[in-house]
Amino acid sequence: MRLRPVLALASAAVSLSVLVSGCGVSDATFEPGVAAKIGDRTISVQRVDDAVTPTCEALQANPQLIGQGFSGAQLRNIVLAQLALKDIADALATENGLDAEQIYTRNEETARGSITGVSDATAAKALPVFAASAYLNDVLDQVITAKLGATTDNQVRQAAANQLIADYQQKAGIETNPLFDPLDFTATGDEGTPQSLSVALSATAKAADAATPAPAAVGALPANQRCLPVAGAAPAS
What range does the record give for the signal peptide (predicted)? Predict the structure, then answer.
C-alpha cells in the first residue's frame, strides 16, 4: 500500500504550517541567491522564483487544486518545500541504489495528467512542484519494501518512512534562508511562529502574513503578491 503523502500541493496551505514551523534557520550567512541548503545541495532563490509563476498558473487553471488561493509568500514557501522534497528524494534514491531518474519520470508523468489548461512550457516548469511529494513517497516505499518486505503493516511502514526522513535531515542538515519559512520535515505539529526575519510592516501585509491568512487578506494584496482562483472558474466535482 502507498505511504501517506508527505506534502500534497492540493492541501499545502494546511500541511505547510506543520512542516515548516519551528526549526531549520541557520545562523550562518547565506550566499547571495541561496534559498536553502540540504547537505551539500543548494536550492537557489532563482530556482524557486522560476517555479512560482508557472505553479500559480497551473493552480489557477485547475480550481480543484487552488482552493481559496495563496499569498505570494505562502506560494514561495510551498514551492521551496516541494523542491526540497525532490532533492531529498534524489539523495535517498541514490544512497539506496535506486534509479532516481526513472522513478521521478514516472511520477512526473502522473503529475502532468493533473495539470490541464496551461501550455507545455508552463507545465514543465511547474511539474517539479507537483511531482515532488509522490516522487519522495515512491522512493520511500521502495526503500522500505527492500528493508522490511512488501507485507509489513502499514503503520510500521509509515513509521519507517518518517524515520528515514528524520535520519536524513539529521545527517545532512537543512538550513533555510531567513527570507523563507524554515524547513523542517520532522515536525509533527504546530510548534510556534516560523523564525523568519522577513517582517511584514503594513496592516495588509501583516494580515496576509498569517500562517493561514483569510481570503480577504490575500485578496487585498497587490496582484503580483497573490495567487487567487480565476473569477468564474468552478471547482471540479
Answer: 1-20
In contact, 92 and 172? CB cutoff 8 Å:
no
Measured CA distances, 190 to 14, 36, 74, 119, 217 (Å)? 10, 21, 16, 37, 22
Phi, psi of 226 (to 5 degrees): -155, 160
Residue 33's contacts (CB-CB under 8 Å, 6 or more residues apart) are 44, 45, 46
Cβ 39 vs Cβ 91: under 8 Å: yes
- Do β-strands 34-38 and 174-176 pair in parallel, antiparallel, or remain unpaired? antiparallel
pLDDT-derived band at 191, boundaries 50, 70, 90 = very low
Question: Got the DSSP string for 59-79?
Answer: HHT-HHHHTT-EEHHHHHHHH
Handedness of CA 10, 56, 212, 24 (dihedral sign): positive
Q: Which residues contact 72 (CB under 8 A, 6 or more apart)?
A: 52, 221, 224, 225, 226, 227
